[in-house]
Amino acid sequence: MHQDDIKTLFDKQAANYDAQWAKSAPINDCLYFLLASLFTRLPADARILCVGVGTGAELGHLAKGNPSWQFTVVEPSGSMLDICRQRAKREGFASRCYFHEGYLDTLSSAALHDAATCFLVSQFILDQQARSGFFREISGNLKPEGILASSDLASDVETAEYEILLHAWMNMMTASDVPPEGIDRKRKAYANDVGVLPANRIAAIIKSGGFELPVLFFQAGLLHAWLSKRAPDEGSVNSTAV
């Protein structure tokens, strides 16, 4: 999807976004539970980059459990960012956040981060070279050996397994049996507007964006999540795996 189209889409969805995805809360709760355990080795004063943060669900979870962490919050949709900012104020951690409305390539902060999150974002970049470049932008904002937790929808869309997972995914979101025409519409949307790729292909894209081989740490239906570490710069000594 074009950047302007993505921004417009989420501006329109912002008011009802959390309600729309409420049925997936158990999945997100498990993802965030594991995320907290993956980030336990970060310093007490860690700086975290949250890319495409939406309404701020993962931001709120991390801020609540880590009262000294600072956050750089990046979101192109002004409407989504407004809701995120309200959440931060309501939950008492807004003073620890720098809010940036725009895409990551417009972030002017020179500060490097200990870790980053990027959930269900890169899937909207259909060109695989551009998607790799997006991850390279994240890598460039991390300290040496900084870590990234990212998630995207993933599957081999040419397989029978994808049809089963897609049907289950649709039923999960609606809590009802979705008719064949509904599945067909979603299949077309995922084919045209979302870069749903096999999990190993997404891992390769992340790696090509400046990270060591990503580790798949979570899967629920179509959603896959990886932990990756910024790869050493050329000429530096190789670091250990995540």
Automatic annotation (TrEMBL):
Highest taxon of source:
Bacteria
Q: Does the record bear Transferase in its keywords?
A: yes
Every copy of the Methyltransferase domain together lies at 48-146
The identity of this protein, by name, is: Class I SAM-dependent methyltransferase
Read off the InterPro entries from this record.
Answer: Methyltransf_25, SAM-dependent_MTases_sf
Biological source species: Salinimonas sediminis
Kindly state a single biological-process term from the GO annotations of this entry.
methylation
GO MF term (any one)? methyltransferase activity
Fetch the Pfam families from UniProt.
Methyltransf_25
Q: Which UniProt keywords apply?
A: Methyltransferase, Transferase
